[in-house]
Write a structure and sequence with these properties.
about 375 residues, alpha/beta, TIM Barrel, eight-stranded parallel β-barrel, two-stranded antiparallel sheet, 10 strands
Length: about 375
């Protein structure tokens, strides 16, 4: 069976958010007691044994509070020793730069944020290189999340911020090319958080940005694109199935974050206008459609699980949600492959949409059965 690549985010494993939610409900994961090396061992000991053999696992990390110059070598050694791969790195700039990061109107902050991105790339090529997947098609992604590219004041300066962003990203791409040009570089769109408004709020915005970088700065679009996050489209009521079509049509689907705001399965609450809930994968017709689209397009890269425990979960329940998310996607993928697309197209061509709906509903039912089989391993 062909390998399926799933990556797990270090930031999923924390003791609690605090504020309106309990801060210490998962005491074993308290800061200072549970670090990145501990998380890697947890994935190997408590998640890997519960998933099918055809799945390869990777880990996603923020610089500089999940990996940095001090621990990068130890992180790489732990990944290799535990049979895991480095799937994605990202600058945790949102935790350091509150005034726009590389888009900032403050020249000092902008310089510091640019250096932050360069150090992220340098460690990926340096100490972390032994943990890359051996297949170039599955090399890690360098994801740029737009959480620091934000503002809360309407002014003409937003145009300057966008210009700063383009110039800084072009510099980062040039630096990464000097290092080897082997990483995949992705922009992760999001409409808000941690600012009321963000540059690059949608998939279409990210695709346009890459085209502008190519036109203005000569940045080649090969290995450049989007980190697709289902929930970020859902939270503003956009269609993440059509997002997938745009990404694939532009050959720009670089990395994926499989999660959900929760409103699209009729079971858990959430949806447009809500905060970023980060449920795991849900089994529904839309996810089966996306699984079918990426299969047809030959996508074989990393599918990350950017998700959060529920506020009431203990450590065991939080781990179980990650396992469920992985298996739910595999169930959607298998159901998509079983679906008779030729028959579906015949129904649609003949305007027999009720019959087409029946076929899709049957695929959802099939996916639930597949999940039960996989989860019962």
């Amino acid at each position: 069976m062909e390998k399926s690549l799933h990556s797990i985010c270090r930031w999923t494993f924390h003791a609690g958010k605090g504020g309106f939610l309990p801060a210490g409900i998962r005491p074993a994961w308290e800061s200072g007691r549970f670090d990145t090396l501990s998380m890697i061992r947890l994935v190997r000991e408590h998640i890997a044994p519960r998933i099918p053999d055809h799945i390869e696992l990777g880990v996603e990390l923020h610089y500089d509070y999940e990996f940095n110059e001090t621990n990068a070598q130890a992180v790489a050694e732990a990944l290799c020793e535990n049979g895991l791969y480095l799937a994605m790195v990202t600058p945790g700039a949102h935790a350091r730069f509150a005034y726009g990061g590389v888009a900032s109107l403050d020249p000092q902050e902008r310089r510091q944020a640019e250096d932050f991105g360069r150090r992220t790339a340098a460690l990926a090529y340096g100490e972390l290189r032994p943990a890359w997947h051996p297949t170039p098609e599955r090399f890690p992604s360098l994801v740029i999340w737009n959480g620091s590219f934000g503002y809360d004041l309407a002014s003409t300066a937003i145009h300057i911020m966008y210009a700063n962003l383009k110039e800084s990203l072009a510099r980062l791409c040039a630096y990464e090319q000097e290092l080897g040009g082997e990483l995949y570089i992705a922009i992760e769109p999001k409409p808000n958080e941690g600012h009321p408004a963000l540059l690059i709020p949608t998939v279409a915005s990210a695709l346009l940005l890459w085209r502008r970088l190519e036109e203005e700065y000569g940045v080649p679009r090969a290995k450049k694109g989007v980190n697709k996050e289902f929930g970020h489209s859902e939270m503003i009521g956009l269609d993440h199935v059509y997002d997938t079509v745009e990404e694939l049509d532009s050959n720009a689907l670089v990395h994926m974050h499989l999660n959900s705001q929760g409103y699209n399965d009729g079971i858990i609450l959430g949806g447009p206008g809500k905060f970023d809930i980060d449920h795991g994968v849900r089994i529904n017709g839309m996810n089966i459609a996306i699984a079918g689209l990426i299969c047809q397009a030959g996508f074989r890269r990393w599918k990350g699980h950017d998700m959060q425990p529920r506020a009431y979960d203990d450590e065991g329940q939080a781990i179980d949600r990650v396992v469920r998310s992985i298996l739910s996607w595999e169930a959607c993928d298998e159901a998509a492959k079983r679906l008779d697309n030729a028959a579906l197209m015949t129904c649609l061509e003949q305007r027999q949409t009720a019959r087409a709906e029946d076929m899709i509903r049957d695929a959802v039912v099939s996916a639930h059965s597949i999940f039960k089989r996989l989860y019962g391993r």
